[in-house]
Design a protein that fits this description.
- By secondary structure, the chain is mostly beta strands.
- It has a single domain, classed as Sandwich (Jelly Rolls).
- It is built from one helix and twelve strands.
- A nine-stranded antiparallel β-sheet has the order 1-11-6-9-8-7-10-5-2, with no helix packed on it.
- It is globular and about 45 Å long.
Length: 222
């Protein structure tokens, strides 16, 4: 009887706390491990990958622009496929966080654009994703600006896809922002830390015929 009571107690505790665990859906992606890449040669934006520079994942991405301006350029972007929307996240909005580095320069030229694939198959406009604070220069975590901005909810089984484009970059690689790793979560209270980042492996990328460039055109800097 005592053993039965114990089992009942443990089951009750599990049922009580399981919603807390199911709610904490968080997906991670290394910026340098993208699935697709599109480069519009006429938009004045160039895309680069980098290695080192104290990036947790060993590297990341950045953009430079011929004429810096505070507006997104969604025609050149990296695309990431994070699988399918799990049942636990059905009908719930998402939040995005990234680990950024900005070495300085003109105030305001320090963020990326983030596009989100909606349940209707259309992409959102590019959100202001990044620093947006001239005093945050070292590696740090930042969400979509304004703070607390969410991404549209998905339904179970919907693809979870993100595009990262240039938004506020410079024409000098030493002054433009860097992106190391980012995460998507349905927990509005979650604030990622460096220690939270899991080990992420490179993907076997296969460029599609529809792309306007090939992997060989992506410039890598150490």
């Amino acid at each position: 009887m005592r053993q039965l009571r114990f089992i009942i107690l443990m089951v009750s505790v599990f049922l009580l706390i399981s919603p807390l665990y199911s709610f904490a859906v968080t997906l991670w992606a290394a910026a340098g491990y993208f699935d697709d890449f599109v480069d519009d040669k006429g938009d004045g934006v160039e895309a680069f990958t980098f290695k080192g520079r104290d990036a947790i994942t060993g590297g990341g991405i950045y953009f430079i622009e011929d004429i810096p301006e505070q507006a997104p350029t969604p025609t050149t972007y990296y695309e990431y496929d994070l699988g399918k929307c799990p049942k636990d996240a059905d009908g719930v909005v998402w939040y995005a966080w990234g680990r950024f580095f900005w070495t300085g320069g003109i105030s305001g030229c320090n963020s990326f654009g983030l596009m989100w694939l909606q349940t209707d198959g259309k992409w959102t406009d590019a959100k202001n994703f990044g620093n947006d604070d001239p005093f945050l220069k070292p590696w740090h975590w930042k969400d979509i600006d304004p703070v607390g901005t969410s991404l549209p909810a998905l339904s179970t089984g919907d693809p979870i896809k993100v595009r990262i484009c240039e938004r506020e970059s410079r024409d000098d690689e030493k002054l433009t922002p860097l992106l190391d790793v980012f995460c998507l979560t349905i927990d509005a209270s979650y604030r990622p830390q460096d220690k939270d980042v899991p080990k992420l492996s490179p993907k076997a990328v296969k460029p599609k015929g529809k792309l306007s460039t090939t992997w060989a055109h992506i410039k890598a800097k150490g």
